[in-house]
Specification:
Elements: E1 14-26, E2 32-38, E3 41-46, E4 49-50, E5 53-58, E6 61-67, E7 70-71, E8 73-78, E9 92-95, E10 98-100, E11 108-118, E12 122-137, E13 156-162, E14 165-167, E15 170-173, E16 175-179, H1 185-196, H2 207-213
Antiparallel strand pairs: 1-2, 1-11, 3-8, 4-7, 5-6, 8-13, 9-10, 11-12, 12-13, 12-16, 14-15
Length: about 220
């Protein structure tokens, strides 16, 4: 068996950045049938919770650990957001330019891209697509400050919780991640045509549909 070697050329990997944000609006059947570009994303922090061990004792010893269900959440920060996001942020628009707050919050889908870099190609090495399902945005604080000699743009922030969706052969999930440096480029192009509307309307395919795109013939 060969000895382990660290930090070889081309294997010093890192992940950075966030871009290509898309908001997906579900139709009456719950299918994420319409995608809208989300400009101005500054960060998306993935915050899974759960999967905590609870010790069980028997015969005067630690007998086993029971693991709680894992849930996926995120914090989304941006300088702006699509007009279509209003209904998912608790706003109703009875007339153009008029918003009514404290309305029921609806479920949406989200995708964004992070860049993969290495010591040879830098940030052009590749990227990951993050697909998030069953999102609900919680009410968030918005701080409006006076303009001064050190002006800063307002950053909006939303805490997002999720409800997992079915995946054949696996536990339900709220997150699918696709690595461009591993999958076939033609399959990746087909997925991006769905996500970004290369042929038809931009939409968020189900986890089963995503997996089927990359299935080995």
């Amino acid at each position: 068996m060969p000895a382990l070697v660290w930090d070889q050329v081309g294997e010093r990997l890192y992940e950075t950045g966030v871009d290509h944000g898309v908001l997906y609006i579900p139709d009456v059947t719950g299918v994420y049938a319409t995608g809208v570009a989300w400009n101005g994303l500054t960060s998306v922090s993935e915050t899974p919770t759960g999967a905590e061990a609870t010790a069980q004792y028997a015969d005067n010893i630690k007998y086993l650990n029971l693991i709680s269900a894992e849930e996926f959440g995120a914090t989304v920060e941006a300088f702006t957001y699509p007009d279509e996001f209003a209904e998912f942020d608790g706003l109703a628009l009875p007339e153009p330019g008029v918003a009514v707050g404290q309305q029921p919050r609806k479920m949406f889908g989200l995708s964004f891209r992070t860049r993969l870099g290495n010591d040879v190609e830098g940030e052009t090495f590749g990227y990951k697509l993050h697909l998030v399902y069953g999102c609900i945005a919680s009410p968030s604080e918005k701080a409006y400050n006076t303009i001064n000699d050190s002006p800063e743009a307002i950053t909006f922030s939303w805490e997002v919780s999720t409800s997992p969706v079915p995946v054949t052969g696996y536990n339900p999930t709220s997150l699918i991640v696709v690595d461009s440096t591993v999958v076939e480029s033609a399959d990746l192009t087909a997925l991006e045509a769905e996500l970004y509307g290369g042929v038809g309307v931009a939409n968020l395919p189900t986890p089963d549909e995503v997996i089927a795109l990359f299935a080995t013939p």
